[in-house]
Amino acid sequence: MGTKTIGERGQIQLCIGAGAATFKAVALASKLRQEGFAVRVAMGRAALEFVQPLSFEAVCGVPVVTSSTSMDADGYASHLRAGESRALVILPATADLMGKVAHGLADDAPSLAALCAPDIKLFCPAMNNHMWANSFVQENVLRLEKAGWERLGPVEGMLGEGYEGVGRMVEPEAILAQVLALCP
Questions:
Q1: Which residue, 42, 91, 89, 94, is CA-closest to 66?
Q2: Residue 76: its pLDDT value, please?
Q3: Which of 60, 63, 78, 108 could form a disulfide with 44 if both were Cys (CB 3.0 to 4.6 A apart)?
Q4: Residue 122 near residue 93, CB atoms below 8 Å
Q5: Pairing between β-strand 155-158 and β-strand 164-168 as defined by DSSP bridges
């Protein structure tokens, strides 16, 4: 296996939700970089309570977008760069973030970036099993799928609350495998 140059495979946009699985997004970002992708990250205010931007910046090598009004050095709105990506991945896709995207709402960096998503777009739900079973959440999942979003998970396993149930986010390796399959 040869050495991969960062960015030789294009760019992947990660939109980070706020939940117990947020830390897994850092591992995915690192794995994507190791596979030769440039990685951009958009985080909402609540996600900052779980993981600091510095963790992503250390593995991605670029600043994290944390504001809906962020501008790149060239004066371009940061969230619009998501449209330049080969794929966009929402993880963890919380009930809140899925609801925003499913209804075209955009009041933070991840939801704004998601509205600029390229053709390849994935979402990886993660939440409590009771939230996952909620009819509003299920309607939003169907709405996203009908709009061309591919869903990975959730799976059954240990939840952040300390018991087993459906709502656990798929592991970063499974997300990586799907990105590699869609973006060879």
A1: 42
A2: 76
A3: 108
A4: no
A5: antiparallel
